[in-house]
Each structure stands twice: as C-alpha cells, then as structure tokens.
Design goal:
- By secondary structure, the protein is α/β, with parallel strands linked by helices.
- It is about 40% helix and about 20% strand.
- It contains 19 helices and 21 strands.
- The strands form four sheets. The chain has a six-stranded mixed beta sheet, sandwiched between helices.
Length: about 525
C-alpha cells in the first residue's frame, strides 16, 4: 500500500487517468512495473554481452572480455587469427585441454579472442604474433610459456593454480602419466616441508612441460628403488634407460641439472610436439643431424649419432631432423639444407638470434661428429652464414637484390643511404608490401645517393643483422661508421618517402618507437 501511495502522490494517477477502484489502479500499476522491469532486463542484457562457448572454450570479444575475467579467477586466453596455420594446429589441443579441465570440475577456464576482429584487445595486450597466449589471475595478466599439447596446457595451468606435484600411491598412476607425457619425475618425501622436499616442490613449480609426481608410499618407493628423500626420472624412450636415479643431495640446482640431462632422449626427433621442449629448455646449444629416415644410410648414421650424444649429454641437445617429412620443409629452408644433400650435421646456439655452425667434413663417422661437437664446446668454430650466389642482374631493377655475398659491398658503401627489406618468400605481409616497395624503388632509381634493396632472409644471412620477423626493414646511412638504424615507421609510400627525405638517424627512430609505445 505504501508503494501505491507513493506512486499516487507522485502524480502517477494523473498520467494513468481516473480509476474506478484501487484494484483497477494497482492492476495498471503492476502491468507498467512489469513492462519497466522487462525493459531493464533487456538493457542489461545488451550491456552484459553473452559469452558463448565452442568446445568448452569461451569466445571472447571486446564487449564481454572484462566480464569474463571478472567472473573467473583463472583464465587462459588465446589471441588468434583465423588464417593462421599454427592457430589451426593448436585449436583441437586447446579444446581438449578445456574439456579435460571441465570434466575434472576445475574452475580454470580457457578462452579465445579473434585478434584480427577485436584489434583493441590485441593492441592492449601487446599481441604481435599468432597464436599468443596470456594467463589471467584475478584479471592480472601473466605470460604463458607452457607447451601447445593438451597435457602440457593442463599441466602448466595446474602448476600455476595449485600444488605443482601430483600425489601418487601406486605404480599404475605413475605408468599412466609416463605413457601420456613420456617423461616424469618421481620424488619420495614423507615430509615435503623438509629442505629437499621444499626444493623439489619449488623446482616443480618453476619447471614447465615436466610432470612431477610425489609419494610417501613405502611400497611405491620400493618398487622404484628409492628411499625417502630420493628422486627418480621415469621415461619410455626407445633404446634408453627407463629409470634414472638422481645421485647426491637433492637441491634446486641438482634437480634442474638432472631434469635437463634426462627429460629428452639422447637423440630427440624434431616435430611440432617436441619443438617447445627443444627450444624452451635450459640448454641453448643444439647438435642437429639432417637425414632422410628412408635412406640407406640413415640407420647407421643415427646409431653413430646416438653414441656421440652420450658424451655431450647436459651440454648439447641432440636433434634428428627427418628431411623426408614434408612438415619439416620450413626448418630445412631456414638452414639452407635440401633433402638431396644427404646426411648433414649442424650445431646452433640460441641467443638473440640463431648462430649456426657447419662442419668441414662430409663423412659421418664417430670421430668426425665427436670432434665437431668438442670443437664447438671449446669455442674453436666460426659461425656459418648462408648465402645464395650473386645474381647476374642483381642491380638491373630499381629494387636491388642482395645476398650474403654482396651485402656488405652494397649497404656499407660510404657514399650511399641504403634501405633494406629483409623478407621471406612465403610471408603474407611481405607480399602485401611488394607493390609499395617496388614503387619506392622506382621513385629513387635515379637518385645519386639513395638505394632501395631487399634480401631473402630464408636463404641469406649476415653477421651484423638479427632478423626476428618478416618483413624487417633496416636503414644503413652513408659514411664510414657502418651504422644500422631500425626502421620503425609506417608501411605506405608516403611514410617511406618522408623517412628517406627527412631525419632518419638512430635517435629519431628511437623517438618514433617510444611514441608508438605510449600510444
């Protein structure tokens, strides 16, 4: 009644007209209240954008992104592009991980954002390649650096949100984990708060891509031949020991070294599945042998390579790349190796770029391979740089063609300002730039001191330039100082012309990059 009185006193009766009874009056009021509430719900529905799901993965947009993070404490978000091959390869594994967590009743959610459509989110979170994965805890962004297979994703998320160790009480549980991931570490601790137990838990938390098991079962300790406080690696690698005991004191350093030495086979085959472990591990020097698994020489070469690998365990990761597999075409291109070349060894070191080392022999015997590895470890090898032969018509067109063998002669000409595009033939962004860059070359073809050039960086390398993505543009100003200036401007003809005709020293380009970061 008080509500009715308040409405009447507010002049509502004047709006509705005269009513014969209070009953009629409140019927009309009730009807209008219902319509009002329905309108509110409709408005709220618009403001609170619906979150749909695909295979248990939340589909996020600029409208519902913040709402999803507010409603879920732990969210892993994939920023993807519909055309990206790596994104397509990740999709089924990502969905499997989301489903596995849901089936377990986990509160961890997986989500995805089409960053080509919702560009504001991609810009906000610094997405520069696809797929990019970010982990959000209470809305706060953290980098995801786990694997791209379903078990790896699930394992990483569990480690970051709970106990990084899985408690096991019987051999069947251990066997299940090893069958799934091929490698696991089992620690025996009746007291996990002990110094060794705490070190084990901390390393488990810090180490991605490895399953850490823990037990206080005396029967399980006896089964694996370890005492309380002991650690054993359990593996299912072919032609390798299935169990390796950690000798000595259990410390963080000892555990890290133990895992680095045993988490991979003595020779691991390169694949999409193993690549994150190979390149994401602590050991940054890799000994690779390229060979066709169907060739007559492969079996003997691999047997020799496995022998040599034992002597460099913990120092080099030994990798077999099957040149007979079409999926490995990109890595063969990167190294400038073709299937027809037969069995080829290389050593690489990962730093800001990739330093490559080639041997001076062709016979793949144990002595040569061992000496190659040892000379690298002793610092006696010189970096190998790929180069095509200089084309006869390299300077016939307005855009000059550079290769490794003529690069320095052209870009370090003290009388020329040289702009160079480092590209990959398969790169979509590079293909889009072609007509603009050709037009730029045409504009400056008769200029006395400006040269427009390009280099295929999949087939040619130079010592002073690290190319991390395509296209990369660098400017080499005239003079004797051999300076290199990163080009950070736009990709239109007008942008390039303004750069070449204006101030384009290193300080100016740094200022442009800082301005972009602020935006």
């Amino acid at each position: 009644i008080s509500l009715g009185e308040e409405l009447v006193s507010s002049g509502i009766n004047a709006e509705y007209g005269e009513f014969q009874t209070y009953q009629h009056y409140f019927i009309q009021i009730n009807l209008r209240m219902k319509l009002f509430l329905l309108a509110c719900v409709t408005v709220l529905g618009v403001l609170s954008a619906e979150i749909t799901e695909e295979e248990n993965v939340m589909v996020l947009t600029e409208e519902n992104f913040d709402e999803a993070l507010a409603a879920n404490k732990h969210v892993l978000v994939e920023f993807y592009a519909p055309w990206c091959g790596h994104c397509k390869a990740l999709a089924p594994e990502y969905a499997k991980a989301a489903t596995a967590l849901k089936d377990e009743g986990s509160e961890i959610r997986l989500a995805k954002v089409d960053a080509t459509e919702h560009k504001g989110l991609g810009s906000k979170f610094g997405v520069r390649g696809y797929p990019t994965l970010k982990f959000f805890v209470d809305g706060n962004e953290k980098e995801y650096n786990g694997g791209r297979k379903s078990p790896d994703i699930v394992s990483w998320l569990k480690k970051k949100t709970g106990d990084p160790c899985m408690v096991v009480t019987d051999k069947a549980a251990v066997d299940t984990e090893v069958e799934s991931s091929h490698f696991a570490v089992l620690g025996a601790f009746t007291d996990r708060s002990s110094t060794a137990g705490a070190a084990y838990t901390q390393v488990a938390s810090d180490t991605d891509g490895v399953v850490f098991l823990v037990t206080n079962s005396a029967d399980l300790m006896a089964e694996f031949g370890i005492a309380d406080g002991g650690v054993v690696a359990v593996r299912d690698f072919a032609d390798e020991e299935h169990r390796v005991l950690l000798d000595g004191e259990v410390t963080s350093e000892a555990l890290n070294n133990f895992i680095a030495s045993n988490r991979l086979p003595s020779v691991v085959e390169f694949s999409d599945e193993t690549a994150p472990t190979i390149f994401g591990g602590e050991i940054k020097s890799h000994f690779l042998v390229f060979s066709d698994s169907s060739s007559e020489t492969n079996k003997a070469v691999m047997a020799t390579f496995r022998k040599v690998s034992k002597s460099v365990a913990g120092k080099l990761i030994c990798v077999f790349v099957d040149t007979g597999k079409a999926d490995n075409g990109r890595i063969l291109e990167f190294f400038g190796i073709k299937k027809e070349m037969g069995d080829v060894p290389r050593i690489i070191h990962l730093s800001e770029g990739v330093d490559k080392y080639a041997p001076d022999f062709t016979e793949m015997n144990e002595e040569n391979l061992s000496a190659f590895a040892q000379n690298y470890l002793d610092g006696k090898l010189k970096k190998h740089l790929n180069s095509e032969e200089i084309p006869e018509d390299w300077d016939a067109l307005p855009v000059k063609v550079l290769v490794g063998k003529n690069f320095e002669q052209v870009v370090y000409d003290p009388t020329k300002d040289v702009l160079v595009e480092f590209y990959a033939p398969w790169c979509g962004h590079c293909k889009q730039l072609v007509p603009i860059y050709d037009e730029l070359g045409e504009k400056y073809k008769d200029h006395p001191s400006i040269v427009i050039a390009k280099m295929d960086s999949t087939a040619n390398e130079v010592d002073d330039v690290n190319v991390r993505g395509f296209p990369t543009l660098k400017f080499f100003p005239k003079g004797d100082e051999k300076k290199i200036v990163d080009y950070n401007g736009g990709r239109t003809l007008e942008d390039f012309v303004a750069f070449l005709d204006g101030t384009h020293d290193e300080a100016a380009e740094d200022a442009k990059e800082a301005a972009k970061d602020e935006l």
